[in-house]
Amino acid sequence: MLTTLAVENYRSLRHLVLPLARLTLVTGANGSGKSSLYRALRLLADASRNGAVAALAREGGLQSTLWAGPESGRGTQGTVRTQPVGLRLGFAGDEFGYALDLGLPVPTTTAFNLDPEFKREALWAGPVLKPSTLLADRHNGTLRARGDDGAWGEPRPIRLTDSMLIESASPEVLVLRERIRSWRFYDQFRTDADAPARASRIGTRTPVLDHDGADLAAALQTIRETGDAAALDGAVDGAFPGASVEIANHDTRFGLRFRQAGLLRPLDAAELSDGTLRYLLWVAALLTPRPPELLVLNEPETSLHPDLLVPLAALIVKAAERTQLIVVTHALPLIRAIEAIAGERASTLTLVKELSRTTLDGQGRLDEPSWHWPKR
Length: 376
What we know:
The protein is an alpha+beta fold. It has helices spanning 34-47, 52-58, 62-65, 164-167, 171-181, 216-226, 229-239, 274-286, 309-319, 332-342; strands at 2-10, 13-19, 23-28, 86-93, 96-103, 117-125, 134-139, 142-145, 156-157, 184-187, 201-202, 244-250, 253-259, 267-268, 294-298, 324-328, 346-354, 357-360. It folds into two domains: 2-183 and 351-367; 187-275 and 284-291, no CATH class. The model has no long low-confidence stretch (mean pLDDT 92).
């Protein structure tokens, strides 16, 4: 389980070190930095697939995502920078910790001068980075890792735009890479008339709902056959009393059928309201028969009727029994419902913005989890 998340110089996240629980709720006013925190987590996950550089390019490049304010203090915009420009992301848990430092390249004749480079990466054992706990260390274009005997192996070259999570064959790096790759993100499913979830599709066993919800019918049928069918029925009936979900199978093409009290025939996915369809998508995502190491939800309350927030809260709390969850939300009713069900198992973090800088409400420097960035 992750216990600490650290971000530095990403948009409004000038310096943020957050404690994480089994179930962490991240909230705050509009513009407080919730979306930036969600994107920072996704960037960390992208590094395990060598996609961090491309992900930053889609956001306008490293220059567009870097903290735009002064380096320190309460200075004004335009302060001359004296420190190397860099975006830092990292996390730690009881077993492992990992951090990366992305910076601007030295200008050359290449046409890719805006591609960020990995200036430093570090993997260590335990929750805090120390020289004695380092397992793999990358400094610019050089990578080294400890062997089975604990001694450092020979340094080897690595491309500046490649993460060591891809290039290193160290057993500890491979384990960490697969753990990060298991992280799962869901961000505002489409529910418009042409949404993928509304169409019937060829069905195969689907223990993990796709990010766009296209395989919703197959995912629900998989839960019914190999997962917690009782929880599925309870989640639907709890939100829509007397309702149930069926999956129609026409020559291997699966279609969703929603039976509701008072109706003479079931409704198919194309007929469902946006809120009903979105709730069923969350049912499929949260009752997955293959829970990930970390599940991150971004504003799951979108388009849901207030009456559905309590059933959604119950689903989230149940999912947290099997996986670590981070829920980014601005819906206080959802937060209150989760807190009422989970009690002390849920930790609520409120982000605030001061002088365009995101901070954790009530957290002073001495309240931060212990964290040390690897130096360039």
